[in-house]
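Supplementary material to the annual report.
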Amino acid sequence: MSDAEPLLSVRDLHTQFETPDGTVRAVDGVSFDVRNGETVCLVGESGSGKTVTCDSLAGLVEPPGEVTAGEVRLHGEDLTSKDEKQLRHIRGRRIGYVFQNPQNALDSVYRVGDQVAEAVRHHRDVSKAAARERAVSLLEQVGIPDAEKRADDYPHEFSGGMKQRVVVAIALASDPDLLVADEPTTALDVTMQASILRLLDDLQADRNMGVVFVTHDLGVVAEIADRVVVMYAGEVVERGDVQAVFDRPAHPYTRALLRCLPGRGEGMEPIPGSTPDPTDLPSGCRFRPRCPHAVEECTSPPDFHPVIGEGHEAACVHHRQDRVAPWRERPDPEGVARGEGDE
Amino acid sequence: MSEPLLAVRDLKKHYPVTRGLLRREVERVRAVDGIDLDVYPEETVALVGESGSGKSTAAETILNLDDPTGGTIRFAGRDVTEFSGNAEREFRRRTGVVFQDPNESLDPRMRIWETVAEPLEIHGVRDRSERRQAAERMLDRVGLASEADSYPHELSGGEKQRVSLARALVLNPDLLIADEPVSALDVSIQADVLSLIEELKAEFDLAVLFISHDLAIVREIADRVAVMYAGELVEVADAAALFEEPQHPYTRVLLEAIPTTDPSDRGRTAELAGEVPDPADPPPGCRFHPRCPAVVAPEDLDVPSDVWQSVFEFRVAVEAGSVDGDDPSVLRAEHDLEDLPPAVAESVDEALDAVATGADERAAEVLREAFPTPCTRDDPSLRETPAGHRAACHHYDPGD
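Predicted assembly:
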């Protein structure tokens, strides 16, 4: 933990959905922090709970879903205790959102400049002309060439990558302290993805924003994260500094995710088995049925154990002080190399 | 070398845009504009490019879902474009298809086994139990034996794509055409479906034409790669050679856009300015020139390459009408044109002054005349490069 209070602090968050098949514990005790100027990536497969985590911290969970426990603090203020109206206010002013599909975020019958200007006026009491001016400036900031002219175009006149830039401009209209981006590049080509990632990186540096970035792609994580929170079946299984997590992935699930990443020229190794049925989760460690290193103790819920590196920890029994993870070659008497090494 | 299973020559697919009562053709969308492509038995060829490059249209045209505007497609030595009746059915039997969205090949009202068995019915297997057996064998092979009686909505995205594969292979084809088969899937599921494709490829002795925008994936599975841009092929090479020594600037940019797998190596991705051009109005010369980071300099121009590139990009911006402003010194700073060497300064100054007074056309003309480059003049064709594979780029013009 850093001494300064984090911008966003999520503690033991629980979000459930009641379904005909039973209760889905989509987010089941998730904790993480985001500091100013920091990008935290929530990474995991579909169904890991990463998107519901975002929705929860933003108060966007709708019935049959419900945030049942936990705390979400923004600037130290607990959002979970706020009523709907207060929340809307905070959400509007302090948190900006960018979602996966820009198509859904833009209204096809309004000019993009008007949509950005409307977002500006929503947060500030300014004249139409001033809002327009600010909208054009925002479009420029997100790298829309010829913004003055393009502001009068409709969404369909923009490519996927350019639409996503417009969505980012709308998200920035309130000068948010925190930007939540849920798979913002997943629907895009790699070239567009690269340019959107760079854009978010630049904007964050300029504005000293905190960013929560949700993705299933560890390649994207390697490009932009400062810290990583790995989720599996509603729980956090590993968190730490991005370099530490890539150098010394500590949870068997993180290790497996890294091995299915294409482009390393080493082949892609799928993870055996499939994600568990959310209404019927395995007891103990939820990755246990797919884990090549599962042992007897894994039937009890794992605690977080520190791994080498500040704030790097994993919910895996193999990192307990008295153990040596089986994928490490030899025990290290001083524990210095804890978590190091590959199979 | 054996005969190619699929041989595509000078394939063109244009869509005329017509207007008015007489349906006069006002323009022509050149989605695919003359590509040559061979796929040999049991090899995986990747056709790579961004959205709008024409790669999916090329695949559809090859599949004969759409009559080509020009060129020939030969399959197992026979001209597919002249196929009819039995011959066409034969081609369809020997070619399986998988699309990006598995829902395209799955009927929500049909049970999984029925979807997989449907091609058998189309190709004359009348006995229902025989069809069911064959479908179950395929489902077993893709790991979904227990889902034979399920409906598509009961399956995950990855499972649906497995069903699409089972359906595509139920007739035991020789060629699989896979159009972005894993782009909509999670990374972990991608690995899963791709390794299944690899296994099936070996088992069924398949040739695969794999269409993708993602070079990281292509690197894992392709034997050869053809890179497509704005309806044309810009580079064709063995996969290893392409990744080792990409020759075309566009290929290099695509490679650099692959996210790193090492956080300490981040931020090196190349920014590609602009977008794939409008296929109804492709740029003259090399279609990549407005976005190219390595345009060929005029022969007699002796300035550092970054200076030349700034001057050229300024020209492209002027021609696109996207330079705005009435103060030459502001424009100069905006376009990286400060402290230019004398060899270019005079013409650039003249152009800047022209733009500042709104005479964009004049400015463009000055720049065009002062700095001629083959990249805006001639459309390069694929030719052998020093790396031993083919690229369509003026950097490899003879005598260059």
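Chain B touches chain A at residues 50-52, 156-157, 186-192, 194-195, 213-217, 219-220, 243, 253-254, 256-267, 269-272, 274-275, 322, 324 (CB under 8 Å).
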